[in-house]
Structure formats: structure tokens, C-alpha cells
Write a structure and sequence with these properties.
The protein has three helices and 17 strands. The protein has 293 residues and is of the alpha+beta class. It folds into three domains: 122 residues, no CATH class; 29 residues; 96 residues, Sandwich (Jelly Rolls). A hairpin with a 4-residue loop joins strand 16 and strand 17.
Length: 293
């Protein structure tokens, strides 16, 4: 026969149903066809599962028929192993063209298989050879070495950039540390200033801070809680209070604090004075005057 088919093997993926698989390579005898079943559930480590002819598979024309359908994580490998025999002894007969052609086919197929056997030996298994792995020439390996060298140069360049970026990050970290120190120093200044501030605490626990520069006048509003930390402070109660308005005033430091009724009396007086440390007064407007409670 004339040869244009260079294949010596074919691989099929199982589907749990198909049991008939085409033989895509040329072969002289059915006994030249070999079938192997591979478990590829771990693609990096395929495992050869023993199967025998004719118990597990047979050649039927140009197909191989398996007794059980390969599963989806199995592959069926078909390849050729031609026996090195010739069909006739030429020295005792006139030249037999048909049998000579058969012997030449056998020689050609064995040559193909020897090439494939070398590939198998280098790739460790028939399965690897038939599933896309290829051999490399010296030129291929030299080109690959050049690519590896170029990648190494690029890696060195990336490392230089990485080192530069790391240095930049380190410098930024130093700047952040310096800024943190500045913030800490500012916090100390703020802490010092807090001692000079009068805290106004509303019923919603939201604090309003007023700079206490004596003498200072504070216009109070209903529900204020006023803590005074400096002397000479005058607190004016609301000019138009309503019943149940309540204001608390506390003296921190024994400073003189004047609480002015601002048009309404406080227990009958126009104003009251706090001048002892931790003294406090709780005022409730009853609709006509402020009561100390």
C-alpha cells in the first residue's frame, strides 16, 4: 500500500457510553494493534489500567470495541506494534509482488514504530508520546536557552525596579513616621488647651467647647450641662425659658461663677454665685422662675 499516514497511535476520551473507537493508523494484522486504558483523574500523573485482549477489548475491522465504556476520567490509547516477520521466503519462489508489498509495509510500519519508540523512551510512556508531547532538536533547545536568558534579564530588571519601589516605600514610611510624631506633638498641645476650655455637654451627650477667657459670658440654652474651669465667668440663663427647661452648672477649681437669671428669678434672687471647688447647681424652670433642686 502507499503510505501518507504518519500516525502510529490515537487517544480517545471516555464518555461512559461509547465502546467503539476508530483505528486511525495503518496496520497489517489485528495483532499489531494494542489498546491501553489510562486513568487521568490526576492529569499530571496518569495511571495505566491493565486491560487484556480479547477479554476487555477486540479489533473489529478498523475499530476497537471495548467490553466496558471508558469513563470520563479515563482515556483509551490505541497504538501499533508490528511484528518483525515477512510473509514468504523469496529464495524459493518467483518474485511474489503481493507478499513483497506486504513485507515492505511491515518494514515501513516497523520504521515508524521505531521512531515512535524513541519518542516514548524519551518521554517515559506511550501515553505521553501520543497526547501531544514532542521531541526537541538542538536548535529548539538553544532557542529555549536564549528565551530563558532573556527572561532572567527581565527578572533582574524587575528586581531593580522592585528595589527602587521598596526604597521609595521606606522613605514614605519615614515621612509617615515623622508626620505621626508631629500629630502626637499637636495632640499634646490640644491636651494642654483642653484645660483652658469650658465644656458644654448637651442632653444628647454631644460636647460643645467654648474658650474660657476670663471674664467670659456664656449664653446657656435649655438642657445644657456646663462645667466651668476658669474664674470670672458669667452664665446667662435662657431669656425665654419654658416649663421643664433644666440646666446644670458645675464649678471645677473653686472659681467664682455668676449664674444670671436673665429676667427670671432663681429661687427669688436675680442671680446666684458658685465659688467653691466641685460646687454645682441644678436649675429647673417651673414656668415662672428657676428653682434650685
Amino acid at each position: 500500500m502507499a503510505y501518507s499516514n504518519e500516525n502510529v497511535c490515537v487517544v480517545y476520551t471516555g464518555d461512559n457510553s461509547n465502546t467503539i473507537f476508530g483505528i486511525t493508523f495503518d496496520f497489517v494484522e489485528d495483532t499489531s494493534v494494542v489498546a491501553e486504558l489510562w486513568d487521568v483523574s490526576d492529569p499530571l500523573n496518569p495511571t495505566n489500567l491493565p486491560i487484556t485482549n480479547p477479554t476487555d477489548w477486540v479489533v473489529d475491522g478498523n475499530t476497537v470495541v471495548t467490553a466496558v465504556a471508558p469513563s470520563t476520567d479515563q482515556k483509551l490509547l490505541l497504538f501499533r506494534q508490528t511484528k518483525p516477520v515477512h510473509a514468504i521466503e523469496y529464495s524459493t519462489y518467483e518474485f511474489p509482488y503481493a507478499t513483497a508489498n506486504l513485507d515492505l509495509d511491515t518494514v515501513y510500519q516497523i520504521a515508524q514504530e521505531n521512531r515512535d519508540a524513541l519518542n516514548r523512551a524519551l518521554l517515559n510512556s506511550q501515553y505521553t508520546a501520543c497526547t501531544g508531547a514532542t521531541l526537541y532538536t538542538i536548535e529548539d533547545l538553544e532557542a529555549l536557552a536564549t528565551q530563558v536568558s532573556e527572561l532572567a534579564t527581565q527578572t533582574d530588571s524587575f528586581q531593580t525596579q522592585l528595589d527602587a519601589n521598596t526604597l521609595g516605600i521606606s522613605n514614605n514610611s519615614t515621612a509617615i513616621s515623622n508626620n505621626s510624631t508631629a500629630i502626637s506633638n499637636n495632640a499634646l498641645v490640644i491636651t494642654d488647651n483642653v484645660s483652658r476650655i469650658v465644656a458644654l455637654e448637651s442632653s444628647s451627650n454631644v460636647y460643645s467647647l467654648v474658650l474660657a477667657v476670663a471674664p467670659s459670658t456664656i449664653e446657656a440654652v435649655a438642657t445644657d450641662r456646663i462645667v466651668v474651669k476658669s474664674a470670672g465667668v458669667i452664665i446667662n440663663l435662657p431669656a425665654v425659658p419654658v416649663a421643664k427647661d433644666q440646666i446644670l452648672v458645675k464649678d471645677r477649681g473653686g472659681n467664682e461663677i455668676t449664674v444670671n437669671g436673665n429676667g427670671a428669678t432663681i429661687d427669688g434672687s436675680a442671680s446666684i454665685v458658685l465659688n467653691s471647688n466641685e460646687a454645682s447647681v441644678n436649675l429647673l424652670f417651673d414656668g415662672s422662675e428657676w428653682l434650685v433642686i
